[in-house]
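Hi everyone, sorry if this is the wrong subforum. Our group has a chain we'd like a structural model of before ordering constructs, and none of us has done structure prediction before. Sequence below.
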Amino acid sequence: MKFTAITENHLYSKAYRNGQRYVGRYATVFVLRDRAARRLMLAHPQKIYTNRIGLTVTKKVGGAVVRSRVRRILRDGYRSVRDGLKTGYLIVISARPQAATVKSTDIAKDLRYVFGKLDMYEKNGQRADKEIQK
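Answer:
Right subforum, don't worry. Here is the predicted structure as tokens:
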């Protein structure tokens, strides 16, 4: 299932300014409660809350080809850790320059650790954030 993207610049700014932030080894994650979550839930065909995701990869990471690859890896890493996440949030994932040289499993492990630190996992099916970041 595809995830809903953040398309408006002001939402990125709000997440940067007001959201919780945690810096991992390969990505920085900003999390902010989505004020439009209820409206989006009512418009959703299955009537469920969803997270809106934004990915940013700056020129510090590399050229256009490298940035596109890192975006694909971030998307895949998020896809593997999104089960069990709390819903109704704006999540902005910003790649760090070290992300250009790693695989999607490393990114997924880093995102799992970061989301655990930000207390984004549901309590009933919570994944352990005891995983040591190596």
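For your construct planning: The radius of gyration is 14 Å. The longest helix spans residues 64-81.
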